[in-house]
Amino acid sequence: ATCLTYGSQIAFLTTDVTRLIDDYAYYRPTVLALVPRVLSRMYAAVMEKVNSSKIKARLFERAIKSKLEEQK
Prior knowledge:
Oligomer: single chain
Number of domains: 2
Radius of gyration: 15 Å
Helix content: 55-70%
GO molecular function, one term: ATP binding
Distance between the termini: 32 Å
Keywords: ATP-binding, Ligase, Nucleotide-binding
């Protein structure tokens, strides 16, 4: 209830897993409840795009490394 008071919204994503990435981009959730299988599919889709070129892979690797260092 507190989240809703401060402007959060509730969104029910599509049942079509192939459109999940589109829904995610549209709603841009702060909290996302998913089952492991869906997370695995999302990870695979992201990694496929990242590994499509060496430049993307290096930028992605650098971004992850930077964020992990920031979290320490």
